[in-house]
């Protein structure tokens, strides 16, 4: 008998944590786990009904392939129990090409998240986990074992079965393989300090056991990108040809392909789909088809596991074509001219007048989502930066305070967000039960006079003829690099305003935009060549302990520099952090395993996040801003009520693009 202990059963409690989102998820497309025969025979416009007794309909382009003998019938392509999606407004129309835009030519990140499917997904409020690729999940009574159930008959886009073998392969043959994963599995799979144990029960059921009770694993897996292709799921039937344990000629094959080792070849073919791997299967709604220097095209996956309430296999849209602009300004111009059917990732509030003026001619409307970032731009002085002068300054609390209070957040809010955001330091969502009101203002109120005094007190008293402060080692002007890691939203403009504010107190800063240069930010992060990396301060919606947070102190944060390498390698690499940082990690390890709503949860959460206020390792700017969303008038079924924007839910996942449709 299954113990039905579900995280989402607590949604009534969790929803209290996110007061910023109005009508949370109220109009999001409903997900039904119905059997095949439950579908009522409504008909989608332009759909092709099978002449047989099939309960399902399919896109005309697929019906033609079936007629030509290129595909099996739709009944044979769908799982025995497909996921049933209730469309946002109405049953859609098959066909068409969605027009999209992408700035980053290397990892195509926005384009990837638009079309990503995972085992699970969050709703807009980030409080409820829905099924997606997975059919079901449940915990043991003591929360030490998570059982995941897949859909019988589910297939990859190439028609091969998707089973628990693909999960076991990702774990046993990749995550636990010392050649492919020398550092071992990711931290989320090591609760209690021990690697999880994956056990195949059947082709559709896998058990994952942990050393300690671990209910918050669903906080992590709810983020679509964590439990998707190239991560928890890998197509064993395709990838094993490059794996030495399955193919004794894998090394020879790798060399024939131009690689030095079989591991390099394996990792190349196993690269994330957002890197536009064309030659491998996927479980996403659209599979990669074409990539050139200026565009990427994906086409519908004929084996996709979702149907609507009328039995029409999703997605409705045949293709998505992304123009690779390579530049945010070009992206903005094209969006304002109506050249995209949907855009939000790369556009800014500061350009609202341009969008409003172009809406009628461009045949689109402008809507808004609620941004849940506590800071749209967070500045993170690297505490182990290579420059010894900067390293000493960045480790000086008074210097960090001076950096923060010299930023005119009110002016930034008015200039870039029409006063609609909230000036906010680097701290967590105010909806958290242990949040303290003073956290919202500490070291965040504009005070250039005090900032100047603090900068003088740390020894930066000498200035050059232009008024900039000099380095205490006599090597000229003190200069810092602000490295912008992602060009999504208004981050460049915000960094430039910070630069200007710091100049007013005699500090020179140079803004380097690495967000449009492929993986350069990640490369420099790995080699400790970033001075003040920036990112949005996110992944704090889920009780302040979600995956990949810069509020962590070990493997994921940018401000900890090579301290995180020390944690990652158990002291074999990197720089040993001070005791206060080690203590922070200990607190976090306890906190993330503590039940929500308990005294220990509030006590540990308050103790952990007090550090980020008192010691200010990161600097916040403006949070909780409105996010403009451009939607073509020919695009339908886009949910907007309660719409939120945060990476915890992989940005686009709650918008459910598979049930969008195009109708002129």
From TrEMBL:
The keyword Chloroplast does not apply. Pfam families: SBP_bac_5. One of its GO terms (molecular function) is peptide transmembrane transporter activity. The keyword Lipid biosynthesis does not apply. Residues 36-54 have a biased composition (Low complexity). Residues 1-22 form the signal peptide. It comes from the Bacteria. Residues 33-54 are annotated as: Disordered. GO terms for biological process: peptide transport. Keywords: Signal. Residues 132-524 form the Solute-binding protein family domain. CDD domains: PBP2_NikA_DppA_OppA_like_4. PANTHER family: OLIGOPEPTIDE ABC TRANSPORTER, PERIPLASMIC OLIGOPEPTIDE-BINDING PROTEIN, PERIPLASMIC BINDING COMPONENT OF ABC TRANSPORTER. This is ABC transporter substrate-binding protein.
């Amino acid at each position: 008998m299954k113990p039905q202990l579900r995280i989402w059963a607590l949604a009534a409690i969790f929803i209290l944590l996110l007061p910023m989102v109005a009508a949370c998820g109220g109009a999001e497309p409903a997900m039904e786990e119905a059997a095949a025969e439950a579908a009522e025979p409504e008909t989608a416009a332009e759909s092709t009904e099978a002449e047989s007794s099939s309960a399902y309909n399919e896109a005309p382009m697929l019906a033609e392939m079936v007629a030509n003998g290129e595909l099996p019938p739709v009944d044979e392509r769908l799982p025995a129990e497909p996921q049933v999606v209730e469309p946002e407004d109405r049953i859609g129309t098959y066909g068409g090409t969605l027009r999209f835009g992408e700035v980053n030519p290397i990892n195509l990140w926005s384009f990837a998240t638009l079309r990503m499917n995972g085992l699970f997904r969050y709703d807009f409020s980030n409080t409820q986990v829905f099924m997606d690729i997975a059919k079901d999940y449940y915990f043991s009574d003591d929360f030490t074992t998570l059982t995941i159930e897949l859909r019988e008959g589910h297939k990859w886009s190439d028609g091969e079965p998707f089973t628990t073998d693909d999960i076991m392969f990702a774990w046993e043959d990749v995550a636990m393989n010392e050649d492919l994963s020398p550092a071992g599995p990711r931290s989320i799979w090591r609760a209690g300090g021990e690697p999880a144990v994956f056990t195949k029960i059947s082709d559709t059921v896998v058990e994952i056991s942990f050393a300690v009770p671990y209910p918050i694993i669903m906080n992590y897996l709810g983020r679509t990108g964590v439990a998707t292709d190239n991560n928890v799921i890998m197509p064993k039937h395709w990838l094993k040809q490059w794996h030495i344990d399955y193919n004794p000629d894998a090394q020879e094959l790798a060399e024939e392909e131009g690689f030095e080792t079989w591991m390099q070849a394996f990792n190349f073919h196993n690269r994330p789909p957002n890197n536009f791997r064309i030659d491998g299967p996927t479980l996403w709604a659209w599979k990669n088809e074409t990539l050139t220097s200026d565009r990427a095209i994906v086409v519908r996956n004929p084996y996709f596991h979702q149907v609507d309430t009328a039995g029409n296999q999703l997605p409705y849209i045949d293709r998505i074509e992304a123009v690779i602009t390579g530049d945010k300004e070009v992206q903005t111009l094209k969006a304002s001219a109506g050249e995209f059917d949907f855009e939000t990732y790369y556009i800014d509030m500061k350009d609202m007048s341009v969008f409003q003026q172009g809406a009628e001619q461009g045949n689109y409307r402008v809507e808004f989502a609620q941004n849940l970032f506590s800071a749209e731009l967070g500045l993170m002085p690297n505490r182990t930066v290579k420059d010894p002068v900067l390293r000493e300054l960045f480790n000086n609390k008074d210097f960090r305070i001076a950096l923060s209070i010299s930023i005119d957040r009110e002016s930034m809010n008015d200039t870039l967000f029409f006063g609609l955001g909230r000036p906010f330091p680097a701290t967590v969502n105010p909806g958290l039960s242990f949040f303290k009101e003073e956290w919202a203002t500490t070291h965040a109120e504009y005070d250039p006079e005090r900032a100047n005094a603090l900068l003088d007190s740390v020894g930066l008293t000498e200035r050059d003829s232009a008024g900039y402060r000099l380095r205490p080692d006599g090597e000229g002007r003190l200069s810092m690099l602000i490295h912008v890691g992602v060009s999504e939203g208004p981050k460049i403009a915000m960094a430039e305003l910070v630069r200007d504010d710091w100049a007013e107190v005699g500090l020179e800063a140079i803004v380097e935009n690495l967000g449009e240069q492929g993986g350069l930010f990640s490369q420099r992060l790995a080699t400790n060549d970033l001075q003040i990396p920036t990112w949005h301060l996110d992944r704090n919606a889920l009780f302040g302990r979600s995956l990949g947070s810069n509020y962590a102190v070990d493997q994921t944060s940018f401000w900890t520099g090579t301290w995180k390498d020390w944690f990652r390698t158990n002291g074999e690499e990197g720089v040993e952090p001070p005791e206060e940082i080690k203590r922070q990690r200990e607190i976090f390890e306890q906190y993330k395993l503590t039940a929500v709503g308990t005294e220990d949860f509030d006590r540990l959460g308050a103790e952990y996040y007090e550090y980020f206020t008192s010691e200010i390792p990161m600097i916040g700017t403006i949070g909780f801003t409105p996010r403009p969303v451009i939607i073509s008038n020919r695009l339908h079924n886009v949910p907007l009520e309660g719409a939120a924007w945060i990476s915890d839910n992989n940005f686009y996942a709650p918008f459910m693009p598979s049930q969008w449709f195009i109708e002129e």
